[in-house]
């Protein structure tokens, strides 16, 4: 029963592979089911009772925040309360009292105000699974007119690398192998395949830098905060000759989640 969720008379195994891409997370129940599993894991981690009241703190890309937040809140805050389900053979009863949504990326900077201090303008680059979200902050305030969302996240990068390795070396490598090589971690893989992966990582970084410039941002003039799952990869493949202004890398993939929790805790109860 490891990682098994029982809900609505059905069994679901969580964490066995990458979710297929859906641009609208409310289109099916996958993210809702993962949320139930996450609630169970959090309660267990915090040694809280299996019957508990819960406030969900979540995030959305800033570019579509205003458009999507009400629909996503309703998706998570359903009427059939409390929720009764089992996870890893333990019964849970969770009453979701509220859902509080925050803009991704910008919220994470709330944990690091020192990156914005004494900088009139800072570019935020959040490299996620499917999109690279861009936003400029002027005097620590988001400039909404500068928000951009580019469909060139890590999923696209990894899929292209898989195809390139297959063509050049004749091997079918996995997501995990590619991520380890890109992050400079040890992996028992053919040296020729490793070389292809590293070259693709550099080309991916160059494409990001070019697309950021095409979106109207000058990374040679404005300091940048790079975060998300791809931050470590970009950090390893940016070269001094790129001539970029000050670069700050938030490589902790939990940065957004920790920020959502802190911000939600500072808000008064509804």
UniProtKB/TrEMBL annotation:
Stretches assigned to the Actin homologue MreB-like C-terminal domain: 124-238
SUPFAM superfamilies recorded: Actin-like ATPase domain
Name of protein: Plasmid segregation actin-type ATPase ParM
Pfam assignment, any one: MreB-like_C
Organism of origin: Blautia pseudococcoides
InterPro entries named in the record: ALP_N, ATPase_NBD, MreB-like_C
Stretches assigned to the Actin-like protein N-terminal domain: 6-106
Coiled-coil zones: none
Domain of life: Bacteria
């Amino acid at each position: 029963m490891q990682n098994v969720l029982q809900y609505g008379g059905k069994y679901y195994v969580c964490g066995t592979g990458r979710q297929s891409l859906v641009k609208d997370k409310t289109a099916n129940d996958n993210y809702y089911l993962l949320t139930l599993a996450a609630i169970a894991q959090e309660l267990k981690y915090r040694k809280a009772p299996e019957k508990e009241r819960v406030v969900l703190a979540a995030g959305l890309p800033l570019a579509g925040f205003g458009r999507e937040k009400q629909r996503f809140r309703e998706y998570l805050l359903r009427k059939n309360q409390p929720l009764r389900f089992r996870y890893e053979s333990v019964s849970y009863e969770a009453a979701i009292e509220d859902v509080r949504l925050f803009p991704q990326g910008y919220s994470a900077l709330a944990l690091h105000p020192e990156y914005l201090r004494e900088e009139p303008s800072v570019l935020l680059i959040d490299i996620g699974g499917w999109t690279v979200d861009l936003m400029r902050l002027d005097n620590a305030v988001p400039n909404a007119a500068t928000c951009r969302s580019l469909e060139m996240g890590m999923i696209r990068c990894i899929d292209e690398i898989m195809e390139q390795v297959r063509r050049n070396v004749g091997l079918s490598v996995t997501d995990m192998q590619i991520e380890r090589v890109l992050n400079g971690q040890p992996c028992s893989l053919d040296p020729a395949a490793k070389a292809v992966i590293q070259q693709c990582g550099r080309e991916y970084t160059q494409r990001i830098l070019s697309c950021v410039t095409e979106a109207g941002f000058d990374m040679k003039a404005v300091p940048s905060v790079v975060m998300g799952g791809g931050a470590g990869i970009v950090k390893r493949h940016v070269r001094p000759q790129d001539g970029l202004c000050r670069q700050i890398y938030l490589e902790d993939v939990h940065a957004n989640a920790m920020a959502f929790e802190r911000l939600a805790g500072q808000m008064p109860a509804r």
